[in-house]
Amino acid sequence: MPPDPAGAPARIAALLLAAGSSSRLGTNKLLVELGGEPLVRRAARRALAAGLDPVIAVLGHEAKRIRGALQGLPVTLVGNPRHAEGMPASVHAGLAAVPDNCAAAMVLLPDMPLVTAPMLSELAERFRATGTPLVISLYGQTAAPPTLYARALFPALLAAAEGGRQAVGEHRHLAAEVRWPAELMMDLDVPEDLERLRAMEAGG
Length: 204
What we know:
single chain; Spore Coat Polysaccharide Biosynthesis Protein SpsA, Chain A; disordered N terminus
């Protein structure tokens, strides 16, 4: 998408989905610390560093604790009372908070701690350079977040019963792809994942 007449780049919001219950890990994984920082704060800080504006954190399970972990960051907090229904409900809540002057929204998962601010910036710049309605991350042959949706795709994302995965599948022919090493797709799901991540952080 070209810059607006004033020369400013297209504004892109971040939707940080932080409402899940993390039941498989046995604790709230978004509050697990790597390098002395909770995962949810790490993800929000990287979204801010990438110039995404606003950064919208969708809260649900243990909202008070997540809010505390984000304290001091310029993040918009949105509650999702339907968080038990799964990720699509959080996407709905987040999209409702995207300002009208945002050209796109990027969906991020805080439990993917290897996703960096430069990665987010590259997705945003691909959108700004091409104007494509969908920019997806490919890890090897697998599409996974972060994923950028232009405003024109918001209705399709809202209508998709299975959320982002369904919307990407239905509009893949429109997508620009940004490829990353497959190992960067690692998320935190079970205790063994946490052990591996901490070893990586320590350089082991």
